[in-house]
Every structure is written in C-alpha cells, then in structure tokens.
Design a protein that fits this description.
The protein is an alpha+beta fold and about 90 residues long. The chain has one domain. It has two helices and two strands; from the N terminus they run E-E-H-H. A two-stranded antiparallel ribbon has the order 1-2. The longest helix is centred in the last third of the chain and has 41 residues. The radius of gyration is 19 Å and the shape is elongated.
C-alpha cells in the first residue's frame, strides 16, 4: 500500500497529519498524528529523510492550497451576499 501524509490542521502551532492510501484516497489512520510520528513511521519503512521531507512539504502545500481556496470561497460568498443586499434595497 502506498501511503502519503496529509496535513489536516495547524492548531495552536501544532501541525497534525493523517496517512492516506494513494490508490483509494482514503484516510488509513484512526486519528491525526504529529510530524514526529509521521517521520518515525516512514523511517521504520525505509524512507529516506529527503523523501520524508518532500512528502511533508507536499502535505503542507496541499493544506495551504485548501485554506486559500476556502478563504476565496468565503470571500466570494460575502461578495454575492452584499450584491444581493444591494439589489434588494433598490426595490
């Protein structure tokens, strides 16, 4: 099974990750774990530090992209709400 880490939260300065099956895209960990735990898991399974660092970099990048997309969507929702308010006040 090919696994990769996916960052799920960044609460109070503590990043948390889950492991995802690359084929099915399903989360295979029962709960989110720390970066140290992810590193230990991949080290135990023979991954190099370079590969682990790259996997964590990608996880962080995906997380940031999801956060940016959510912020843009919220901003668009606010824009359309304001626009609808403007139309309804013209009546």
């Amino acid at each position: 099974m090919d696994l990769y880490p996916d960052k799920v939260t960044d609460a109070e300065g503590a990043e948390r990750f889950v492991l995802v099956d690359a084929k099915t895209q399903k989360v295979v960990t029962a709960k989110d774990v720390s970066e140290a735990t992810v590193r230990k898991f991949f080290q135990k399974h023979g991954a190099s530090e370079t590969a682990i660092n790259e996997a964590l970099r990608r996880a962080r990048k995906r997380f940031d992209q999801k956060q940016e997309a959510a912020a843009t969507e919220a901003s668009n929702d606010d824009f359309f709400d304001d626009l609808m308010d403007d139309f309804s006040s013209d009546e």
